[in-house]
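Subject: sequence -> structure tokens, single chain

Hey, anyone have a minute? Need the predicted structure for the following. Not urgent.
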Amino acid sequence: MDALVLTQRHVGKIVELCGRDVFADLVIDRLHRALAEKSKGVAPARAGFSRCHGDTGSIEWMPYHVPGDCMTLKTVSYTPFRTTKRQYLPVISATLTRFDDETGRLTAMCDARLLTAIRTGAASAVASRLLARPESRVLGLVGAGAQAVTQAHALSRVFPLEQILVHDIEASHAASFADRVRFLDLQVRPAGLAELVATADIICTATTVGVGEGPVLSADGLQPHAHINAVGADLVGKTELPLPLLRAALVVPDHLDQARHEGECQQLSEPEIGPRLSAVCSHPERWAPYRHRTTVFDSTGHALEDHVALDVLLQLAAETGVGERMLMEHLPDDALDPYTFAH
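Reply:
Had a minute. Here:
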């Protein structure tokens, strides 16, 4: 069996043919459904290696296994530091692979840089749709990097947004954000943290703050109904939100074990942590009253999100006929002799 290979060019072509809104909507809806149905898949906490440069980066792997069906595996590198080699490269690089569970054979692989950004935005949209006020109109973004684009896009698909306030310690990032999300046709402008916190109904923090250098957001002046998607915490000791804010809020993690290790939940004791996102998706009526209180989605990146995003990509690849099939594996004529080659 040949594996379907989707390069950056193929992924871009699929988005071009189907439209970014269709792609985002499919991932949001499929992810919501998968979480609500408590998928039978198994997703252990991600593991990996810390890198050099003061342990500010990492190379990790995130598996998702559906017994009897398939296994999806993402390898991802996080490199927030800038060197000569990385001067113009994105902070996150990723590759997704899928294996047949019965044969163990590789069935698909793709570049996952865009998919990672889309599925992270989709997760925030799912959580916000359940925990934020439905009439939310002002989005605040703390951190105006690549992830902020898909956060804004996904949230615009599920809320009647009218304005986006942007804050970044790199003024040029905040200044260029309006051009990067021009396709949303929303009012976008840079703002100071105090104004952003006091005005936004929904806030997304997606920063590269260093280990031990947080928080990046103050609880002072926060609207009492504000919902926060905390996206940037992904290392031990790296957090974006102040502890008093977390203790005053309903904190909902995506993956509990992972969030306690490297998310905002690493600041909290077990009784201070709220339900998992899957529980909120399964029983939305139970948590609906919290839409009028402060809520936090602790988004560390669940492998289920990658699995769902790959499902969507493979479906659209089949519908559009985009992709390349390749025999990636060595299949000898004689299974007992690795030096024979199948023809």
